[in-house]
Amino acid sequence: MLKIVVMVSGGGTNLQAIIDGVKDGKITNTEIAGVISNNRNAYALKRAEENKIPGLCISPKDYESREIFNEKLLEAVDGFAPDLIVLAGFLVVIPPEMTAKYKNRMINIHPSLIPSFCGKGFYGLKVHEAALERGVKVVGATVHFVDEGTDTGPIILQKAVEVQQGDTPEVLQRRVMEQAEWIILPRAIDLIANGKVRVEDHRTWIEE
Ligand code: GRF
Predict the structure, then answer these.
(1) Which residues' Cβ are closer than 6 Å to ligand 1?
(2) pTM for the model
(3) Is the Cα torsion angle 166, 171, 175, 176 positive or negative in sign?
(4) Atom 14 (ligand 1): residue with closest C-alpha?
């Protein structure tokens, strides 16, 4: 059984997709051990509570330094003894110690087809604003392992989504969530839970 901890900062629609996937059997062999947010008002924490999943808020605002926050965050994660950490819209920089300790055991969902529109400053709506500004015709989402960089780890799954005439950033964000994020994140977790993802150099191999 794969024990996962999901880290969130906002509405938690990706968390909800994972919860629903475990419930309806799309995600097998997996247990959500806990949810951790840096934002006490994150609706994602409410979703955890509604589904009887332990939720924690570890906020940088509650600690006198980033170093102490980083220590407390890693302690909280370790407390769940996860096999896999899932970053689902988590907007705080992951402490290097945590990235090193969970190498190839921490994944992230990014709302673009990496390597487009990713890296520092590309998160949430900003990603979709940049895509519309550039005038691309296809966008999408990526699930990747987290390494020491920003959105630079080995790619696990990607799914493309069409841009439509007149799209606003909000409309495009929603379509990318519905048609890509909420599909590939649960699928990536299920593949990992069943030992079907192998990392070689900087790429992954998926055994269907
Ligand atoms: C989504 O836009 C996702 O692509 C990005 O952060 C946002 C999280 O949304 N990683 P939610 O909290 O899962 O609804």
Answers:
(1) 8, 10-14, 44, 88-89, 109, 111, 124, 173, 181
(2) 0.97
(3) positive
(4) 13
